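I am still getting used to backbone structure tokens and would like to learn alongside you. To get us started, please write out a protein record for me. Once you have written the record down, we can walk along the chain together.
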Amino acid sequence: MSAPAADQPTGNGARFAARPLTGGGTPTPVWLNSGPRLPELDLTKCPEIVVVAPHPDDETLGFGATAVMIAQLGVTVQVVSVSDGGAAHPDRSPLLRSRLERTRRTELHRAIDTLGLPAPICLGLPDGELADHEPRLTGLLTEILDSRPAGTWCAATWRGDGHSDHEAVGRAAAAAAECSDAVLVEYPVWMWHWARPGDPVVPWDRARAVPLSRAAIDRKQRAAQCYRSQFDTVGTGEPVLPPFVVRRLLAVGEVVFW
């Protein structure tokens, strides 16, 4: 999840931009008290899964506990981290950006290990510019999915999540899944910030809640703490991920669009 830069094809970037992080977004109690009652996703139907994350940390914050639950069923879970994560602080010099990229990759490996998953595949595409590399990303994801059994699930950020990188990854994953006979599963991350319960641009008819165990949530919480570079102010005065963002993502559980 890098700092902010309706469903497809237009996306919800304008909705996200209209609700900056400084405003806090939709409060957690609103989601907990007024959120829709959703049918549950049957994880036992998953034969294998590739989890695609735009930035190092999205896999944990948006899908981490679900990945733990699936892995505990004996199913292979492969995380693919698309970007290098270097644009979390876009005003940094090239040298400092390079250092941040290395830091975020190290954090990613620690988080994945904490979740109990195999080592991630890192594609290293430029953070903040994924829409410019969408055709290449589609090809790379197609190759990965083609190496998996038919019917493999491909979990990627929702195509309407509001962040340009998240939406580009969602579109590329959707195209790759179609080419590879994989099953697309979309998970929101920033939607929880700018949308509200019953929001008409959210495809609630496709939404499924994931039944998470306390142990899986605890693993997700520990994995999220691996991303210290996102919580530190680094002299900017504000962290990339304010504490309330992480608390909200931990509180609302995990939902996918099926």
